[in-house]
Amino acid sequence: MPQPIEGLRPLADTVDAFVLDLWGVVHGGQAPFPGVVETLQALRAAGKPIAFVTNAPVRAHHVAAHLRSMGLGEAYDALVTSGEATYERLSEAYAGGRYLPVGPSWAKLLHDELPLTAAGDVAEADVLLVVGLDEQRPEPEQYDAELQAARARDLPLICANPDRVIVVQDGTYSWCAGALADRYVALGGRVEWMGKPDPAIFARAAGMVGVTDPSRVAVVGDGLPTDIAGANAYGAKSVLITRGIHARDLGIQPGEVAAVGALRDLVGRHGFNPDYALASLAW
């Protein structure tokens, strides 16, 4: 059972770095959540480096530009994205090949930088690249025919964002690439998951700010299957932010304190164990 806390101050003396998720923790796509800027400033003032680790399925320089647009360009020390991991994997294993793109219009930010050629259909593809759901097909079941055709050819699926859902600024939910990857797994398909919960992405982020001992790292995120699962596997301390994707499971509005019983049930269902629970990012 995670220990409820009101802010990150109690952890500051026990760790050397903080690894923070972005969506659902720092912002909802448009602006920092209330109290976030002050919390980041307090962490830096306490001498604690901040690494952002996000399952955003674009390369890091695109996320950095987005952070600058929200006034957060100087608020962190390192940034790692699942999109960067996706780019590296495709460049190493599939360079010169053909990929079938699945995703929204902005997925071209990743596609345009790949050393591969986009395929016109499943029959031409060497690999299925799922960045997200496109604007015309917002529900996962709308992709079943495509996934079944890919499975018939035993194509590997690269999941550029293992998140299943995301919470946007107004508190509404949208499906992510992980929801399609789950459906492909259910068909018996092969999936390569890029980003969290892979413990390697946490180790990479911590190493970028000079910390190599997982026990001296605090991971702060809103997703039990991604942030907390990855922190557990990595060996770091972990803080679950309840305002994010699990708010509706907990029966709360973003920023409200979750009931102890609801939090215990949620953690029990998922099987991943945060050390602490915090309503919203705060110092």
Tell me how many strands there are.
Answer: 14
CATH class of the largest domain: Alpha Beta
What is the fold named in CATH at topology level of the largest domain? Answer: Rossmann fold
Second-tier CATH architecture of the largest domain: 3-Layer(aba) Sandwich
* Helix/strand/pairing category: alpha/beta
Tell me the CATH superfamily of the largest domain.
HAD superfamily/HAD-like
Strand content: 15-25%
**How would a textbook summarize the main sheet?**
7 strands, parallel
Report the mean per-residue pLDDT as an integer: 96
- Share of helix, binned: 25-40%
Stretches where pLDDT is under 50 for at least 5 consecutive residues are none
N-to-C span: 22 Å
- Using only CA atoms, what is the Rg? 19 Å
Overall, the morphology is globular
SS summary, helix count:
11
Order of SSEs: EHEHEHEHEHEEHEEEHEHEHEHHE
Strand order of the largest sheet: 1-14-13-12-2-3-4
